Amino acid sequence: MNPSRRDYLLLAILGLCWGSNFLAIKIAVAEIPPATLTLGRLATAAALLLVVLKAKRIPWPTEPRVWAHLVAVGIIGNALPYSLIAWSEVFVDSQLAAILIAATPLLTILLAHLTLADEKLTARRLGGVGLGFLGVVSLIGIDALKGLGADVLAQLALLAAASSYAISGIVARRMPATPPNASALAVTGLSMIVLFPVAAAADGVMPAAPGWTALLAMLWLGAVSTALAMLTYFKLVASAGPTFVSLANYLVPLLALGLGGVLLGEEPSWNMLLALALILAGVFLTGGRARKADPS
């Protein structure tokens, strides 16, 4: 599949949505327990997506085959990796976690080659994905890899989360044509249902009502990092394929650090500039030459 200019724009939007996760979670989790925060962001996203669905009068999917795909994406692409990442980061440094999660595009390109006729592995695509991974490692620092093998179970959980994201992209690509708004709402709602008992068991009742700052951060997570991200995700999977979409995982740490730099006034370091060059080269190498943008 040959991404259009619009696909590259959507990829940047998706990376920004996911990249803003870190700052918003850091603010919100100071007052809201992690499982409850995840449930709150999903509930916020589901409510907003329901409003969009009703306002645009988009029909609800009725085919059992579509719902089978939506359930799979909800569990494999949201509920399972969210839980695995949250648990593993209790034991593993977040920098090493970011590198292991960045294995998603590498796993996706291999799975896509085996399962999708229009996502065959080429030297150019593999080179692009490899360049992007090197960009993430250079951004975070090679020293983060020194922790490999220290907490094997937690690291395996992170690789399982990366595998879940890769499998989810393949499942979403093979799903029958469905409006992105309906797909995003269904997946978000299903994830919320699955995670509700987890939040209730893990957090119980919050000791005090959170302040406005934490609540606004949770609303941002729901509106931007979940609702807008899910809409963008389904549009991009349909138009450019799961391998291209998975490259957003390379943009996430770059944009997360970039947002911190803008807000905190920090100067970009040499490794950030090197990472930017490697990641952008990897994205364009994997995507190939952009065709003329679709007027729609």
What do you see in this structure?
- The structure is a single chain.
- The protein has 296 residues and is mainly alpha-helical.
- The chain has one domain.
- It is 76% helix and 0% strand.
- It is globular, with a radius of gyration of 19 Å.
- It starts with a helix and ends in a 9-residue tail after the last helix.
Shape: globular
How would you sum up the major sheet?
Answer: none
* Low-pLDDT residue intervals, each spanning 5 or more residues: 289-296
What's the tally of helices? 13
Question: Care to count the β-strands?
Answer: 0
Radius of gyration: 19 Å
Distance between the termini: 18 Å
Sheet-strand content, in percent, reads under 5%
What's the average pLDDT? Answer: 80
List the domain count as a whole number.
Answer: 1
Helix content: over 70%
Secondary-structure blueprint of this entry?
Blueprint: H1 5-19, H2 21-28, H3 34-55, H4 64-88, H5 94-101, H6 104-115, H7 123-140, H8 152-174, H9 180-203, H10 212-240, H11 242-246, H12 248-264, H13 270-287
Helix pairs in contact: 1-10, 1-12, 2-10, 3-9, 3-10, 4-8, 4-9, 5-7, 6-8, 7-12, 7-13, 9-10
Provide keyphrases for this structure.
296 residues, 0% strand, disordered C terminus
Concise summary:
The protein is an all-alpha fold and 296 residues long.
